[in-house]
């Protein structure tokens, strides 16, 4: 035994005492928790005495309960009543008319009408995965721009919207007719693969989902650059990754737009990710000089307290009312006019078998281009980007 130290047997005894005290504390915590779940009138005198002697545990458990309830409320979807929603839309329409530089931030909520699940809604990708349930979706190539996508394209055409910053990878903004210079797809585009060996990077727009073979930290698509022969990569930024590509992320334009904006309209985004990008919120400016913020979402967002107006409604419903209020017609989506077909680079001979995803075609009756000899999977599929990065964030529940 070292001088002044404890012997091995004394250390073991001290460890046993420590563990016993911890177990007694856990048992007391469980007892107090069970009592607190009872109505006050149903508690015995002995249980009342135990609560009185355990004020610190009662305070801790009540605090936990309040936090759980708060988180639960934040996940609930709330809808404004029709009259309240119309009143708010009139106010939003005034803001759109008066804005000198309006930027729109969009999230997964604008694509749910296209049968693409969001992430944090009641049936969202993360919500289901965190509950241990499987995630499925229709073939994403069947998705088409929604009323909201087409409304935004129209607002940009009318010079009421100057730039769109999107978290979505579904490519629907591009397919709605928005010019590429007017879009910053911060998390990539499922239809675009790039060669990073070429300077500047060479882009290949495809008419199929290029992410079939890609995943978190694994981005090569299996096809090669037509110019230099280097491996192509997708453009997706997964959760936990940092986007480094110039396009289609277009961070430079997003940052410039945010710095010029006097009004920001957030549509269908939980803002839990976007809030982490300080350059999108002009946080270096004094509060009085920051853009006015308008949010359309059914759930709580971390920017609600900063908003000039929060509209609790579905994006398509709000945008229909807004376009009516502005007196603007919403152009219908037409596959025959979808810009992706003029932007797309066709596969070369020998590349037709490089994917098994269904390709877009101008007409649903038209055979997909380049796929006549390539077998297509008939089962619903998910892009390599869809829902990836969620599992690493799943937390185990604490057991009392």
From TrEMBL:
Reaction equation(s) it catalyzes: N(6)-propanoyl-L-lysyl-[protein] + NAD(+) + H2O = 3''-O-propanoyl-ADP-D-ribose + nicotinamide + L-lysyl-[protein]; N(6)-glutaryl-L-lysyl-[protein] + NAD(+) + H2O = 2''-O-glutaryl-ADP-D-ribose + nicotinamide + L-lysyl-[protein]; N(6)-decanoyl-L-lysyl-[protein] + NAD(+) + H2O = 2''-O-decanoyl-ADP-D-ribose + nicotinamide + L-lysyl-[protein]; N(6)-acetyl-L-lysyl-[protein] + NAD(+) + H2O = 2''-O-acetyl-ADP-D-ribose + nicotinamide + L-lysyl-[protein]
Gene3D superfamilies attached to this UniProt entry: 2.20.28.200, TPP-binding domain (3.40.50.1220)
Keyword Ubl conjugation: no
Residues annotated to bind Zn(2+): 195, 198, 225, 228
PROSITE patterns, per database record: SIRTUIN (PS50305)
Segments of skewed composition (Basic and acidic residues): 8-28
Cofactor annotation: Zn(2+)
Enzyme Commission identifier(s): 2.3.1.286
InterPro entries: DHS-like_NAD/FAD-binding_dom, NAD-dep_sirtuin_deacylases, Sirtuin, Ssirtuin_cat_dom
A single GO BP: negative regulation of phosphatidylinositol 3-kinase/protein kinase B signal transduction
Spans through the membrane: none
Pfam families, alphabetized: SIR2
Keywords: DNA damage, DNA repair, Metal-binding, NAD, Phosphoprotein, Transferase, Zinc
Region Disordered, residue ranges: 1-28, 352-380
Enzyme class at the top of the EC tree: transferase
PANTHER family: NAD-DEPENDENT PROTEIN DEACETYLASE SIRTUIN-7 (PTHR11085:SF1), NAD-DEPENDENT PROTEIN DEACYLASE SIRTUIN-5, MITOCHONDRIAL-RELATED (PTHR11085)
Similarity section: Belongs to the sirtuin family. Class IV subfamily.
Name used for this protein in its record: NAD-dependent protein deacetylase sirtuin-7
Organism: Equus asinus
Designated gene of the protein: SIRT7
């Amino acid at each position: 035994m070292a001088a002044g130290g404890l012997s091995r047997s004394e250390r073991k005894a001290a460890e046993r005492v420590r563990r016993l005290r911890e177990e007694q504390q856990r048992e007391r915590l469980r007892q107090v928790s069970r009592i607190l779940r009872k109505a006050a009138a149903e508690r015995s005198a002995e249980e009342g005495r135990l609560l009185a002697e355990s004020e610190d545990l009662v305070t801790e458990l009540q605090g936990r309960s309040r936090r759980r309830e708060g988180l639960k409320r934040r996940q609930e979807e709330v809808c404004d009543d029709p009259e309240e929603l119309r009143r708010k839309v009139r106010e939003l329409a005034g803001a759109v008319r008066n804005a000198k530089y309006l930027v729109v931030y969009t999230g997964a909520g604008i694509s749910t009408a296209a049968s693409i699940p969001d992430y944090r809604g009641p049936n969202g990708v993360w919500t289901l995965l965190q509950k241990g349930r499987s995630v499925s979706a229709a073939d994403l190539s069947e998705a088409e721009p929604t009323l909201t996508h087409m409304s935004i394209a129209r607002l940009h055409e009318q010079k009421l919207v100057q730039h769109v910053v999107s978290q979505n990878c579904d490519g629907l903004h591009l397919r709605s007719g928005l010019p590429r210079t007017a879009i910053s797809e911060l998390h990539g585009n499922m239809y675009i693969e790039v060669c990073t060996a070429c300077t500047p990077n060479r882009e290949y727009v495809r008419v199929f989902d290029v992410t079939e073979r890609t995943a978190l930290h694994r981005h090569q698509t299996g096809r090669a650059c037509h110019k230099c022969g280097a491996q192509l990569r997708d453009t997706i930024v997964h959760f936990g990754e940092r986007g480094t590509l110039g396009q289609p992320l277009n961070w430079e334009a997003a940052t410039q737009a945010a710095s010029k904006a006097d009004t920001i309209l957030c549509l269908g985004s939980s803002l839990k990710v976007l809030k982490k990008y300080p350059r999108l919120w002009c946080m270096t400016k004094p509060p009085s000089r920051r853009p006015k913020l308008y949010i359309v979402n059914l759930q709580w967002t971390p920017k609600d307290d900063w908003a000039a107006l929060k509209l609790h409604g579905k994006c398509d419903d709000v945008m229909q009312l807004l376009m009516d209020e502005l007196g603007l017609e919403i152009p219908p989506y037409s596959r025959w006019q979808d810009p992706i077909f003029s932007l797309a680079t066709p596969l070369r001979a020998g590349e037709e078998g490089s994917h098994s995803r269904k390709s877009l075609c101008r007409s649903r009756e038209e055979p997909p281009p380049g796929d006549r000899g390539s077998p297509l999977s008939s089962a619903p599929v998910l892009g390599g980007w869809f829902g990836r990065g969620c599992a690493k964030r799943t937390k185990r529940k604490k057991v009392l």
